[in-house]
Amino acid sequence: MPEAAELGLRDRFGARGYYLHILGYHEGSLREDEVAEELEKVRMYIEDVEKLLEARKGA
What we know:
This protein is mainly alpha-helical and about 60 residues long. Helices cover about 85% and strands about 0% of the residues. It has one domain (about 1-59). It is built from three helices and no strands.
């Protein structure tokens, strides 16, 4: 799916997993503001995926 590659979805997903799951959950090394920033990135990621799915549905 070229659109997913253009949006960098795989890399973005991996980054969120690392920051939130590894650094946040396992290591507990993220500050509250860093968690909020990462969660905002998750929100933007979800919005991009939703737009991609809507575009594919309409095609």
